[in-house]
Write a structure and sequence with these properties.
It comes from Saccharomonospora piscinae. Residues 432-453 are annotated as: Disordered. The chain is α+β, with helices and mostly antiparallel strands and 453 residues long. It folds into 2 domains: 15-151 and 314-384, 3-Layer(aba) Sandwich (D-Maltodextrin-Binding Protein, domain 2), CATH 3.40.190; 154-312 and 386-451, D-Maltodextrin-Binding Protein, domain 2, CATH 3.40.190.10. 43% of the residues lie in helices and 11% in strands. A 5-stranded mixed beta sheet has the order 2-1-3-10-6. It is globular, with a radius of gyration of 21 Å.
Length: 453
């Protein structure tokens, strides 16, 4: 893997960033902040799989006599709220939902509980069942500090029926040039069908996730090995122009405000012919309770240009902040929500297409799940297995991460750059203007790393 070299090190979240995050407003789901005695407060992201966990959590409450209070927030708000609370050891949350971006950094800062002793004391939980790349991404110094709820890479969903009607054939390993050509043919304003749906909503975990994979496969970098910002390089500019032009010309209406949720709604309601995003989308696409396109989709690998692969690696996971008072009780719920038995509970109670994917290898041995996920199970596993820097990047970089830059400053830097990208998608400025401003942001970050090497 093309990992960090030279001056790579963990850095604490800048104090100014923590202060800014503390000002972000939040909204509670079930219950209020704070835990008392036999109660747990869990901060989660308001995604479909997490909503399912809330719906099923009464089983845990009855079995353990515990009150569960969920604070469910949209992704951008959740990131800010959870970061601020955990960084300041505020104690609002007994468990937090974070990703492989935060886990190793926060573990190095001492903000999280080492789960190694719990895993060793509970062999039936079977941590070895986790997909290795997912497990490694949630580890620091060979110990896990979070456990995955679901894992993902990225791929392309496409309407097989619309392709057939248009006389098109999806290649086994499509390029972005081919996808742009398909989008132009399939774009149908009269029928209300966009050629493709791509995220444009600001947020380092929103539009920048798919966008950065496009940058990677076009040969771009956020920083070179000497921490020089590269956002105005020819490769980065070509990727940005391609992404912006594609979504402006053949993407969904209101693209500059569309994220994962919005694209999911459009695709499942038959309003997009293709959708490039997280592999976890497939469960929603194939859910009869919410989708109008069940059984009509094919799933192709993330499109490429100059690399062998271009999918990302990501996992929403559960961690116990170091400030949590009753860590044993927190572990009880954490292990319940990420255990093999929970997978079967979701499948039997809610449907096998709603099972959290890309996490445990044993999930893919369940006959009912294999049948329900036949269209996307293997593409998901293939995407995760190829999600490494050697296959998804053309040149080494000094940071870890594929769809993100694994440094604390990226929460602020990525959000700023995403705002510039969104403005370009909305037609408020040119791509060159967006990149010039983004380069200035990145140069400030890169300079701080060069100074401390």
């Amino acid at each position: 893997m093309r990992r960090a070299q030279g001056g790579r090190r963990r850095r604490r979240l800048p104090l100014l960033l923590v202060a800014a995050l503390l000002a972000v407003p939040g909204c509670a789901g079930a219950g209020a902040l704070g835990a008392d005695g036999g109660a747990l407060t869990i901060a989660i992201v308001a995604n479909p799989q997490m909503n399912d966990a809330i719906a099923l959590s009464d089983r845990f409450e009855r079995e353990h006599g515990v009150e569960l209070n969920f604070v469910s927030l949209p992704e951008n708000q959740a990131r800010a709220k959870i970061t601020a609370s955990t960084a300041t050891q505020g104690g609002e949350f007994d468990l937090v939902m974070i990703s492989n971006y935060e886990t190793p950094q926060w573990a190095a800062n001492g903000w999280l509980t080492d789960l190694g002793p719990y895993l060793e004391a509970n062999p039936d939980y079977d941590a070895d069942d986790f997909i290795p790349s997912i497990r490694d991404a949630l580890s620091y110094e060979d110990s896990m500090y979070a456990v995955p709820f679901y894992g993902e890479s990225s791929f392309l969903a496409y309407r097989e029926d619309l392709f057939e009607q248009a006389g098109l054939t999806m290649p086994e390993n499509p390029t972005w040039e081919q996808i742009a050509e398909f989008a132009a043919v399939l774009d149908d304003d009269e029928a209300g069908v966009a050629g493709i749906c791509l995220r444009g909503k600001p947020g380092w975990g929103e539009s920048l996730a798919p966008f950065t994979t496009v940058v990677n496969t076009f040969g771009g970098q956020w920083f070179d090995q000497d921490w020089n910002a590269r956002l105005t390089s020819p490769e980065f500019r070509e990727a940005a122009e391609f992404y912006v032009n594609l979504v402006r010309e053949h993407g969904q209406v209101g693209a500059s405000n569309a994220g994962f949720t919005e694209c999911g709604t459009r695709y499942t309601q038959g309003e997009a012919a293709m959708w490039y995003d997280a592999t976890v989308m497939a469960g929603t696409n194939e859910d009869p309770a919410s989708s109008k396109v069940v059984g009509k989709s094919g799933y192709a690998p993330a499109p490429v240009m100059d690399t062998e692969a271009s999918g990302w690696l990501y996992t929403w996971s559960l961690a116990i902040p170091a400030s949590t008072e009753d860590k044993d009780l927190a572990w009880e719920f954490l292990s319940w929500m990420t255990d093999k038995d929970y997978v079967r509970l979701v499948g039997e109670e809610l449907g096998w297409n709603r099972v959290p994917p890309g996490c445990r290898r044993s999930t893919y041995d369940i006959p009912e799940y294999r049948e329900a996920a036949s269209a996307y199970a293997q593409p998901t596993l293939d995407g995760i297995s190829h999600a490494n820097q050697d296959e998804t990047m053309t040149e080494p970089v000094p940071y870890e991460g594929i769809q993100f830059v694994g440094i604390p400053e990226f929460q602020d830097l990525g959000t700023r750059v995403s705002q510039q990208l969104s403005a370009a998608i909305a037609g408020q400025q040119s791509v060159d203007e967006a990149l010039r401003q983004s380069q200035e942001y990145a140069e400030t970050v890169g300079e701080s790393y060069r100074e401390t090497r």
